[in-house]
Design goal:
Distance between the termini: 33 Å
CATH superfamily of the largest domain: NAD(P)-binding Rossmann-like Domain
Number of helices: 17
Largest sheet: 8 strands, mixed
Number of strands: 15
Shape: globular
CATH topology of the largest domain: Rossmann fold
Length: 413
């Protein structure tokens, strides 16, 4: 163990101190730290407006010794210019290919398109959503073939068991879903011409929310604030109790049973589909027969469509053509609702991704971080040429391998 020289202490501002430093510990940390090359491709899927990393996050990553390669105009739809990124130290790439070929870690919002999949380089790390309602086995097979380490937003958990990215996007989607429904109720969009909150002497619209999780809570809070009559359905009584406690008032809650669901759906002017099962497809709880009994001009906003949807008549739509009519009911089934407020959503995702990327670098790579951070490994769904999420493997009858076994085999091989 050696002491720092007095001149070195003076340089560090310790003029009146005498400190003995063990030199071995900082050397060990520096040896472990790894400089990352992080790629931010422009989103091309389903009119996606978000971007995975904000300029501010890029600045932090660059200041910590990492390189960030951002595709030209990757942030333009979130109101982030190339200049914003370059001012923070990013390298601007003018082709998609350059980003994929230079990066060791790729940060995306949506799953890769087929042409993007073929740009992947062996052994890269991929952060993105999975979209369990739309994922195909060929997608997973190609990730396995190229030995990609894939981290999915839908699987990534915090230490408290919550899903931070999904929670942030769900908060945005819950609030936005009510704004969308209020607009779709207006007559010029084909709705039944109701004002969501009503006025004096005229009753408000009835909003039925299926699911009392994060989306359901924020939809409930927003609809309640606008004056709507709100009904909430969930299959977990404690979720309904928690919702009432948070709301601070008695609200109409129903346990998720077929008769109760049917009554609440048929009587609704707006149905918000907000079911979510972490790492699984959403259960379909609203049947087509129920939809046929709803009033003409009523609205369904199926927020859970990116997990497969919870309404039998739902099918994926886009921001360009967001609605369709079935049995006289307007359906809104855009899977990336949060993209409507792309700047807010981008910053929210970036605030979660950037600390994880810093941890990867500080740990010397994802292999080391898997061993140190239980919350990080929850997000990995493909690793070492294996699917490591049992629910995903079961969906396609594919082989599953526990990530702890793979990690141990790597450590002791």
């Amino acid at each position: 163990m050696e002491s720092l020289q007095a001149s070195e202490l003076l340089k560090k501002g310790f003029e009146h101190s005498f400190i003995t430093y063990p030199q071995e510990k900082p050397l060990k940390i520096n040896e472990q730290k790894k400089a990352l090359i992080i790629g931010v491709p422009k989103e091309t899927h389903n009119q996606e407006m978000r971007v995975a990393l904000s300029p501010s996050a890029v600045g932090v990553l660059v200041a910590n010794g990492h390189q960030v390669v951002v595709e030209h105009n990757a942030g333009i739809n979130a109101e982030f210019s190339d200049q914003d990124y370059s001012n923070k130290g990013a390298v601007i790439a003018y082709t998609q290919e350059e980003v994929y070929h230079r990066a060791t870690i790729l940060t995306k919002i949506n799953p890769l398109e087929s042409d993007e999949l073929h740009l992947l380089q062996p052994n890269q790390v991929l952060f993105s959503a999975v979209h369990l309602g739309n994922v195909k086995p060929d997608y997973l097979k190609l990730l396995i073939q190229k030995n990609i380490s894939a981290i999915g937003f839908e699987f990534l958990q915090a230490n408290d068991g919550s899903f931070p990215i999904m929670r942030s996007m769900s908060e945005i989607a819950g609030i936005t879903s009510i704004h969308i429904a209020a607009e779709l109720l207006s007559r010029h969009t084909g709705g039944n011409g109701l004002l969501l909150g009503g006025i004096t002497g005229i009753p408000p619209a009835v909003v039925t929310i299926i699911g009392a999780g994060t989306v359901g809570y924020h939809a409930c809070k927003t609809a309640f604030a606008l004056g709507a009559t709100v009904k909430v359905i969930d299959d977990e009584i404690h979720q309904l109790q928690r919702l009432e406690e948070i709301m601070g008032t008695k609200i109409y809650t129903v346990i998720s049973q077929q008769d109760y669901i049917e009554e609440a759906v048929i009587s609704a002017d707006v149905v918000i589909g907000a079911t979510y099962k972490g790492g699984h497809r959403s259960p379909c709880v609203v049947t087509e027969d129920m939809v046929t009994k709803m009033r003409d001009g009523s609205v369904i906003v199926d927020v859970s469509i990116d997990q497969g949807g919870c309404v039998e008549t739902s099918r994926i739509t886009t921001h360009e053509n967001p609605t369709f009519e079935k049995h006289g009911v307007i359906h809104y089934c855009v899977p990336n609702i949060a993209s409507r407020v792309s700047r807010t959503a981008s910053v929210a995702i970036s605030n979660i991704l950037s600390p994880i990327l810093l941890k990867i670098g500080d740990s010397g790579g994802i292999q080391n971080l898997i061993g140190r951070d239980p919350s990080f490994k929850t997000g990995i769904y493909v690793y070492q040429r294996h699917i490591t999420q049992r629910s995903l493997a079961n969906m396609f009858n594919m082989d599953f391998m526990d990530i702890d076994l793979l990690y141990s085999a790597n450590i002791y091989s």
